[in-house]
Amino acid sequence: MTPVETFKGKRVALFGLGGSGLATARALVAGGAQVAAWDDGEAGRLKAVAQGVALEDLAAADWSGFDALVLSPGVPLTHPEPHWTVLAAKAAGVEIIGDVELFCREREARAGGSPFIAITGTNGKSTTTALIAHILREAGRDVQLGGNIGVPILDLEPPSDERIHVIECSSFQIDLAPSLAPTIGVLINITPDHIDRHGTIENYAAIKERLVAAAEVALVGVDDACCHAIGARLVEAETPERRVVPVSGKRALDWGFYVEDRSVYFREQGHPPEEAELIGSLEGARALRGAHNAQNAAFAAAAAWECGLDDDEILSGLLSFPGLPHRMEEVRRIERALFVNDSKATNADAAEKALVSFTDIYWILGGRSKEGGVEPLRPHFSRIRKAYLIGEAADDFARTLEGALPFEHCGTLEAATTRAALDALAEGAPEPVVLLSPACASYDQFANFEARGDAFRGVVEGLPAVIAARKGGLT
Q1: Which of 32, 97, 276, 354 has a CB 3.0–4.6 Å from the CB of 101, allowing a cystine?
Q2: What's this model's pTM, rounded to 2 decimal places?
Q3: Mean pLDDT of the region 203-219
């Protein structure tokens, strides 16, 4: 935990008692603050009481007595309309901040300038964050990994000169962190997202830009128009204390970090192409398949390089990265077949990344469909041997697949996985891939995509016995 001692003796309103909210309440109390915590949901309030967090109905509170409102990132700050606590705080002139801002103030007070890598982007930020942390740990560094991925930031060990904090930041968290100024800021990409919470794509992009605007080193993607424009603006404002470095996962750059032909390079400004430094090839990095992971790898290599790691240390970390659960996760091999859990692919755009990364695919898809269905994936149907349909979307998806590729209605994930495994091993492909990449939300049959992926993993672990029984002629 990082006790928030910068608020010692102050009275703080805290709204939102999910995981990060409870962690924030504990850290504030540990630092000596007086916390008035509340949540509109009874479940959150009960959890807080069980953990010894004092509750106070903020709707009946005297807001003039608060020094700050600490808002959980899931609570609307501006759109579709400000939450009632936001309106109360603004009326009383009370600042509104979040847990990342509390961390930034503690870092400045405890160990100003301690290593702090902050990562954001519309897609790939979790993988990039985990990959950076993995590379640094493999090289022997003291790393704290958290934020929007896994562990709340204030549940991590406190900042110190020898400890590197690697923190994923959502746009919601950035919006509540006015003093965010990391050692290394990473902005991977921007595509339209969370417009319901930010109003416009322009506002969403402006919030993302704030993560890199005050960074000592800003690693900024150039593979989309929004990030390219942000990078150009930051270069215009560049100072000796604040550098901007371009990063691409798609093409060679005049300078900066990039991936070309599945190899990661660094080219210094003003140097010819033949002097680009080869960091290493990604061919052996099985957890980093696909163009999207090439971009993630380029950013991770850049961050590690800026932390002082050499090429061999960076490449070793890239090749040994195990990947994140439910994101093209290689579960296991059974005989020739590879089983891949891509349950995080809850729409066609996400599923496309897996489909273009493999061939001879036995594709498990379906669930609660999102707008557009799987029609956008038609150009990749030639990679698929057969599809196995589950959940509510099965009939709609069948209409799309009709005449394009073989498919089977399976109903449940267990049935689909078993049928796909048996077909994959019965046919002649040298390395068939049984791929769960549903292109759907999970809520028709599972609580979330994690539960769906865990169920797939469980079925796969039991398949050797099923396959052995079939081979033995048993039913």
Answers
A1: 97
A2: 0.90
A3: 96
